[in-house]
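Record type: monomer structure entry
Structure origin: computed from sequence
Chain ID: A
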Amino acid sequence: MLAVSKLHSSANAWCALVCILLLSGASNITYAQTATKITMEKSIKLSIEINAPIEKVWSSWLTPEGTSKFFAPGCLIDPKPLGQYDIYFMPDAPAGQRGAEGNYIMAMQDKRMLSFTWDAPPQFPEIRKHRTLVVLRFNKLSENKTQISLHQTGWGEGKEWDEVYNYFIEAWGSVVLPFLKYSLEVKPVDWSDFPKNLPQGLKPALNLNAGK
């Protein structure tokens, strides 16, 4: 009984203390509220619709025959997770100056998603040491119509990073994706006498960040 009495007494004491603090200690209790600034991840987001079966759009990214029709005249592609994914815009140039080099496929789901690392072009030597991530998603709209979206992320901060970011908005949006559409709807890109024979006046891909 003594132990129970002491327990009740202790509980009552705690209740009384809490009441006192709530009634008279509001000014003595400080509730700290930390405001956290949420920074949205910088990314390139583009989309384009192509009048071609999803199988052809998919294989265009993963075979030498496919990439040579729209992306670049040369490549080194091992189509599996962690397989090499190099695209050579100037195949005869010295190593390190040929184009996108030292890149790897990170993940792939057949005719649904392809992701790979990507480096900056040689004119940005410091940023070229780093890698961003490109994610492609494929959506079958009909038997002969496919939507492809491109998402590039992993950007650093600073003037040179911003220059590379702006460079790739144009490179993907006004060149690569429109060239892909052209190659599947009209004819393969002609890399001879570069850049004289490249297609001109193509409609750019939809920039999903526009207006934000």
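Annotation 1: The first helix runs from residue 2 to 24.
Annotation 2: Helices lie at 2-24, 54-60, 64-67, 125-128, 159-185.
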